[in-house]
Amino acid sequence: MSDDKIVLTGIKPTGTPHLGNYVGAIKPVLEMAQNNKSVIFIADMHALNTIEDAKIVSKYSYEIAATFLALGLNPEKTIFFRQSDVPEVTQLAALLSNVTPKGLMNRAHSYKAKIEKNKEQGEDIDAGVNMGLYTYPILMAADILLYGSDIVPVGKDQKQHVEFARDIAGSFNHIYGKDILKLPEPYIREETGIIPGLDGRKMSKSYDNYIPIFAPENQLKKLVMRIVTDSKTPDEPKNPDESSIFNLYKHFASATEIEDLRQRFVHGGMGYGTAKQILFDAINEKLKNARARYENLINNPGEIDAILVSGAKKARALAKPVLNRVSNAMLGKDIA
Q1: Which of 87, 164, 239, 284 fits a 20 to 30 Å CA distance from 215?
Q2: How many CB atoms lie within 10 A of CB 302?
Q3: Looking at residue 1, what is its pLDDT?
Q4: CB 193 within 8 A of CB 247
Q5: Rounded average pLDDT over 188-208
Q6: In 74-125, at which residue ranges do the beta strands (DSSP E only) sit?
Q7: In degrees rounded to 5, what are phi and psi of residue 271?
Q8: How far apart are the C-alpha atoms of 21 and 212, rounded to whole Å?
Q9: What pLDDT shows up at residue 119?
Q10: Spatial contact of 137 and 92, defined as CB atoms under 8 Å apart
């Protein structure tokens, strides 16, 4: 990937980040940010169509920010900010709504899932659907297009977000000029596999089976020791690939350590209690320094605010020329 290309990532603050988020999303984003010109934002306005408490939105936003910073994000190299600190994004969304077909919104996965659920429950198909949910692809397109993004890393299930942004930008360019908005490309992240939770299902807040990334050491140990296992005795061989313990361990250990633990599973002679202790030690060692940094940041929100405000200024410097190209095409004047 070329160094001059802009890579954009948004993170929706809808809960305390857990190890599944770390492995599946946060770690890959941080790795990409080390080698590319990156724009990373906390999508706090997207959280508003599901969270109706400002204190909770704020809490989760600070937790996301502290998590990324504690895990090594460099705000001097990466443009890191809160979505709501860049007013140009809502201005662009309002303008783009005029070139966005309603039928495109009807095809959005989140909207379709909501109306299908309503049908199953015998409700009116639009029950509980607010316009924030229905039009969120327009705001998301504004997020993607506003900074001249070239690459948007997403999982396979999020590819539609980028496709919609391209569709909206293509519609705009067709009407107003082919080179006004850049059409970004999706970058499909490699699948990390299902990150197992305490009960063996996919780690998820919905299942309440998750381990917070920065759980205090004593809480981390208690949670690891709660991981559900089968009834095999210590002497019996065990299949590591069917073990939540082993499948978590793979993301926090070296290749040699992973193979050593695999052999202990396969050959028997190790109880699950020992395996859990090995897992706990690996996670704790990997995250203990970041945990200390996280705790310091979360207790000093002013430090986080200063970083995010500084990032928003840099983001707005990218945003204003894009917004003004659009507003000049549509209104004949700058609005930024």
Answers
A1: 239
A2: 7
A3: 52
A4: yes
A5: 88
A6: 79-82
A7: -85, 165
A8: 9
A9: 94
A10: no
Q: How far is CA 232 from the centre of its chain?
A: 37
Percent of residues in the chain assigned helix, strand, coil, to nearest 5: 60, 10, 35
Q: How many helices (H) and strands (E) does the chain have?
A: 14, 5
Q: Can you name the residues that pair with 186 across neighbouring β-strands?
A: 152
Angle at 92 between CA 88 and CA 94, to 5 degrees: 120
Position 3 scores a pLDDT of 62
Q: 195: closest CA among 254, 246, 257, 263?
A: 246
* pLDDT at 50 exceeding the cut of 60: yes
The pLDDT score that the predictor gives to residue 194 is 84
Backbone angles phi, psi at 52, to 5 degrees: -110, 20
What CA–CA distance (Å, rounded) separates 199 from 214?
20
Both tokens assigned to 146:
């506003």
Cα–Cα distance for residue pair 111/121, rounded to 1 Å: 16
Distance (Å, whole) CA 257 – CA 249 = 9
DSSP string, 286-314: HHHHHHHHHHHHHT-HHHHHHHHHHHHHH
**Domain annotation for the chain: domains and CATH numbers:** 6-194+301-331 (3.40.50.620), 217-295 (1.10.240.10)
**Token pair of 218 as six digits:** 């004593």
| pTM for the structure as a whole | 0.93
Q: What is the 3-state secondary structure (H, E, C) of 240-275?
A: HHHCHHHHHHCCCCCHHHHHHHHHHHHHCCCCHHHH
